[in-house]
Amino acid sequence: MSTLFDKVWDAHIVRRIEDGPDVLFIDRHFIHEVTSPVAFLGLENRGMKVMYPERTFATADHNTPTINQHLPVKDPLSANQLETLERNTAKYGISYWGLGNPKNGIVHVIGPENGITQPGMTIVCGDSHTSTHGAFGAIAFGIGTSEVEMVLASQCIMQPKPKKMRITVSGKLSRGVVPKDVILYIISQTTASGATGYFVEYAGEVFEDMSMEGRMTVCNMSIEMGARGGIIAPDETTFSYMKGRDKAPKGKDWDEALVYWKTLKTDPGAVFDKEYHFNASDIEPMITYGTNPGMGVGISHHVPLAGTVDSNKTTYDKALHYMGFEEGQSMIGKKVDYVFIGSCTNGRIEDFRAFASIVKGRKKADHVTAWIVPGSHIVEQQIKAEGILDILTEAGFTLRQPGCSACLAMNDDKIPAGKYAVSTSNRNFEGRQGPGARTMLASPLVAAAAAITGVVTDPRTLLNNN
Predict the structure, then answer these.
(1) Are 360 and 250 in a shared domain?
(2) Are 187 and 259 in a shared domain?
(3) Of 266, 265, 310, 273, nearest to 290 (Cα)?
């Protein structure tokens, strides 16, 4: 009896090292402009080639501007990194979707939407949120720069096998509660380090009912509770999403792949090292109040008292001081300066549909700066084709171009010091969105409600009025 994780991991072991890590074969390797330059330099210095260039896929996302992408990139460091990636991929024969390419976008968005991500695969990238791809029943995790070089040179990586955790959420989600709320709730219950050393399988009715976009959101944030990654068993929802995509199997290859993919599930009676069980009825729209993703509460709640949370009081007080919050303060009504929807967490078409469902027929608050950033050019085209752009424009919003944008302070989209942002991204660390920026993580529905009202607002009050 094996878990889904065991089945995929064990199928990729090239060599077991006694009392050491396993040598794993890697099916797909994604690279971008930030973590790859030093790895390529290492190859060059050693006179080595990329072993399987057809298994590596490159895109520009972290350092890219989200306006005027047809113009030269102004920031010298960003421009150099982008040029270096283009030069390295050309040298080693790697597919590169740079600025202006219709397939360009955030690495963890373009992989699934082009069918590169598939069940049963091992997938790595020099980016922590590679866990996103686990939504397809793949083992996917982030790696460091030296490991990027290792995969380029050998298509293998040395990794100790993580312990196994299963998180089951039973029941049906209430109206206004979406996948982002589910994972923020889980992290709030397990803490930001509660899954350290584990690979998490998500199970139960809530995940079975989720779309692929929702499952990707959940797996994306697995590492925010310390996990090595997250995984969800592939099913008809997975297969329907994948069928016909550019890099997905076709014809007879599809039929053969499907036979294998349907075996990728945890056997009854398989044992996990740790298990959690939650009820969907306990989850409401979530928002964070602190400086790690585990510091979150239901939006109708107040900032917890220090004695009620699993945290050192000095650390807790420091986080609240940074955020400008006080114990017992209501989250609802807090003024919001910026709203960001996008990132590899919530930059897919389903997220913009949700955002539009709130803002339709309403107007953006005058004092709010909103960055509406699709995760890829394919998502951008879907926004336009479905009439979502018209809804956004009428409400006073402007659609930007694809990129990581305000998820991290590595491009022009930075939140000014002291300003509050409701963000659909994945991290609220000090300075994550800009030096001194104050980030509240939330779902696209909560972000939309804040953009319209100018304050933290329960989106259910606006859904009921539509």
Answers:
(1) no
(2) yes
(3) 310
Residues 122 and 208 in one domain: yes
For the chain, give the mean pLDDT. Answer: 96
How many Cβ atoms from other residues are within 10 Å of residue 175's Cβ? 9
Confirm if 393 and 362 have CB atoms less than 8 A apart: no
User: Is 0.90 surpassed by the pTM of this model?
Assistant: yes
Strands (E), 41-133: 56-59, 95-97, 122-125
Mean pLDDT across the stretch 122-151? 97
Q: How many CB atoms lie within 10 A of CB 390?
A: 13
Domain of 149, CATH number, reads 3.30.499.10
Using pLDDT thresholds of 50, 70 and 90, give the confidence band for residue 401: very high
Spell out a b/e string for 126-165, using b for 16 or more CB atoms within 10 Å of the CB, else e. bbbbbbbbbbbbbbbbbbebebbbbbbbbbbbebebbbbb
The neighbouring-strand residues paired with 168 are 203, 277
Residue 27: both structure tokens together: 């099916």
C-alpha 272/C-alpha 461 separation (Å) is 40
* Contact of 343 with 376, CB cutoff 8 Å: no
User: Does the pLDDT of residue 101 top 60, yes or no?
Assistant: yes
Alpha-carbon span 274 to 55, nearest angstrom: 34
pLDDT at residue number 311: 76
Note whether residue 387 is domain-resident. Answer: yes
Q: Is the model's pLDDT at 466 over the cut of 70?
A: no
Tokens coding 302: 């107040």
Residue 322: which domain range? 288-463
